[in-house]
Write a structure and sequence with these properties.
about 220 residues; alpha/beta; Methyltransferase, Cobalt-precorrin-4 Transmethylase, Domain 2; five-stranded mixed sheet; about 35% helix; about 20% strand; methyltransferase; cytoplasm; 4pyrrol_Mease; rRNA (cytosine-2'-O-)-methyltransferase activity
Length: about 220
């Protein structure tokens, strides 16, 4: 029976791969990978021999129609990303939407997602939060910050290492120097680190010690007091 499986992969530590994810990847007709070279290492480690095709942000618009036809013909397909859960700041939404619109079964397996441990590690309120992902680089960036000034929920951002200090400085500018911030980097990896403090304190820390690796930033919302 045709089905699209959305399969999370480890964000760093291979031991976070689930038994169910391995089973699904071994059984499907095709695996769609963001980067076949990166995913090839993962599949080799778990002795998964399924066929693999490239599916990334630069070609997903062109490949969706053909993939839907293959699913309608009875194939089972698994979508993975380089790390974490597909469609969370990674390709996956377009194919999932197309499957839903065409009545094709979609099943997302539970698994690794970087922002969840970063949120829990932060010590900031997590009963209500908003996932912002990557901020716009230029156009719309200031507009987004101005809109978020009134956000009372905890905010979560993905930030590249070379943009971290700029982003922290913008937090100081738009949210205030005393706004609580938590920066988690290299989650689940050997050099995992979480730095907590005010926006100003965390900025000074990373100005003195530039960050490396994958980064998730969690910011406290505007106080309702």
């Amino acid at each position: 029976m045709s089905k699209l499986y959305i399969v999370p992969t480890p964000i760093g530590n291979l031991e976070d791969m689930t038994f169910r994810a391995i089973k699904v990847l071994k059984e499907v007709d095709l695996i769609l990978a963001e980067d076949t070279r990166t995913s090839g290492k993962l599949l080799k480690h778990f002795e998964i021999a399924a066929h693999m095709h490239s599916h990334h942000m630069h070609n997903e618009h062109k490949t969706v129609e053909n993939l839907v036809k293959r699913l309608q013909a009875g194939e089972t397909i698994a979508l993975i990303s380089d790390a974490g859960t597909p469609a969370i700041s990674d390709p996956g939404f377009l194919l999932t939407r197309a499957c839903v619109e065409n009545g094709i079964a979609v099943e997302c397996l539970p698994g690794a997602t970087a922002f969840v441990p970063a949120l829990v590690n932060s010590g900031l309120p997590n009963d209500k939060f908003v996932f912002e992902g990557f901020l716009p680089d230029k156009k719309g960036r200031q507009t987004r910050f101005l809109a978020l000034q009134e956000e009372y929920r905890t905010m979560i951002f993905y930030v590249s290492p070379h943009k971290l200090n700029k982003t922290l400085a913008e937090f100081v500018q738009y949210f205030g120097a005393d706004r609580p911030v938590s920066v988690s980097r290299e989650l689940s990896k050997l050099h995992e680190e979480t730095v907590r403090g005010t926006a100003e304190e965390v900025l000074k820390h990373f100005e003195a010690k530039p960050a490396k690796g994958e980064i998730v930033v969690v910011v406290g919302g505007k106080s309702l007091k």
